[in-house]
Specification:
- This protein has about 280 residues and is mainly alpha-helical.
- The chain has a domain of about 100 residues.
- The chain contains ten helices and no strands.
Amino acid sequence: MATATTAQGQQQDTQKMTSDAQRDALAALLRRPSKNSGSSSSSQRGPPQPPAPAEKVEEEDTAPPTQAPVGTPRPMPFDPSIPPPSIDPFAFPSAQDLPPAPRKRILTPTHLAHFLTSQTHTDLLSFLRQGAASIVGVQVPADVHTPEPSPAPAADESDGKRTGIQSALALLNTVASILASHPPHAQNQGGTLGSGSASAQGRFGNPTFRNFHAEISARSDELHSQFFHQLRDGEGDDEEEKRWKKVARAELKAYFDEAWGNARRIDYGSGMELNF
């Protein structure tokens, strides 16, 4: 009996140590690195540091330093003279390399700790920080205005001549038209529509949003095929090309559906921004 009790206690201690180690690792990853801290105090599992050339650019920067609030990630130094990494031309991989359907993968603290040490996390932060740093100190002229969106071009208009950005803008114009076809219903002062609790009607938004979201999701494949000719099935496509275009449209749909908000809760947050 004493032996069983001792073994059970050792197992609980081991589980506690594992949980504490995971928590400490996650805390170290989320902790903002201090500019004054030496190498001896830095965590071995901390966030990846900027490369040496970029650090040199930061030291030579003549701009006045700014103190970021505690907990704010330190911006990555930006050097316009350093070109971005090259992107290989897209090619359909072989059939055995079909990717799995996108799904939520970060569900536990352990998943999050793994993501924070991944190359995907490093690439994502680099993309965001480089974009943010590139516009620091850039003034917007007073005469700059935002024009009204132009009508979306027809599916066959300028096919193969539009840039990716132009195709994306044409797609967004159509999304705006779909949104206009689902005007919000009037709500009472309590923020709900008709009977039912606020949680049943939606946390923050108008229930009509669900109709817009449903149409966007149902037409995702159609819209991506319409405005991106590379994703459209062609008469000369073989079976492998058709299969891969279908996979590509399905992957885009996973992010496209999540880019506008949560249809069940009727809310919008940073996760939707990232999907967009």
